[in-house]
Amino acid sequence: MGLNIVLQCLYYPPEVGGLESHVAGLGEGLARRGHEVRMLTSRSRPDLPRREALAGVQVRRVWMPSRSPLGWLAHTVASIFAHANWARSADILHAHTFASAVPGMISRKRYGAPLVVTLHTSHFLMRAPKPGWRAVFRRIIESADYLLATSEEIRQVALAISRHPRSEVMTNAVDTDRFAPRTGPLEGDRRQIIVPRRLFPKNGVEYFVRALPLIAADLDVEARVVGDGPERERLTSLAAELGVSDRIRFLGARSNEEMPGLLREAELAVIPSLIEATSIAALEAMSCGLPVAASAVGGLPEIIDERVGSLFEPANPQALADAVASLLRRPDLRDLGAEGRRRVVANWSLDRMVERHLEIYNELIDEAKAKEQG
């Protein structure tokens, strides 16, 4: 018999990002296994329907006035009633991100279904040192029957706030059937680099642009940046100032459906983040057989080492350029990509992530039933 599962996350597809991919992959994977999955999220764009079914997941979108802490708070309050309606019949409640936890906390107290909380993203890491936020996070962490985090760094920061007795790293996962390696050779003479990063300061794309002339001094390279954001105009101007406009293309935001094809057109991915959880973009690149050069921050060293790519000092264009050039000169570059692919299939596939969630859910449900009977 299938479970009745209520998920809540601030953002959900068609919004694009690692958080959205993680939650959509989980929800759709659970639905494919015959479970009833309902997703409560924000109406982050006015063109999105308030209710719809997406790949077997029943989605309800609740008002959110802006993409800001105040907007998140307003959405949290606005979604409490809708969450409670669904929670009455739920077997398990699962909140993704701290901004989505409060409705689950209230519903858990009222209706008794176990609550799982997953902490994602750099937003948590940036706010955790602040005393006011730490008090909020402590309440959220202590309310969870099971605490998940998308990197070991996030888990350790959470445990420093409150020593939760049951916590686990749940790395982002990849649909390894869709994100598969190319089968033929690349076209063109230039070496192809992809930078799958949204254009926000924390993602460090500026340092890749600054490194590009250093790379191009030795190698004939071309880069494509996939993602959009407030830094686009400045980065385009910076590329022109550095004389590399003919070597870099800013493709803007692309859907998740387009990403496998875009990745397969490159031979190396670069993740130049200044702060990061565990990058779904890096894992997707690895799943497509690409070696990855990444900054040594957050959860990136947990998935990348010299057998699948290279790590470099963040915010250091010379270190970034050296890492990229060194990789592109390696005769065994495709072997690194093949090892990355094997690693993702073995450890971070979508099927593995869904199965582990179900193990946790069933454990909590059995414990709750035992308490009722005892």
TrEMBL record:
Keywords: Glycosyltransferase, Transferase
Organism: Candidatus Kutchimonas denitrificans
Domain Glycosyltransferase subfamily 4-like N-terminal: 16-178
Domain (Glycosyl transferase family): residue spans on this chain: 185-335
Family matches, as CDD domains: GT4_PimA-like
Name this protein carries in UniProt: Glycosyltransferase family 4 protein
GO molecular function: glycosyltransferase activity
PANTHER family for this protein: D-INOSITOL 3-PHOSPHATE GLYCOSYLTRANSFERASE, GLYCOSYLTRANSFERASE
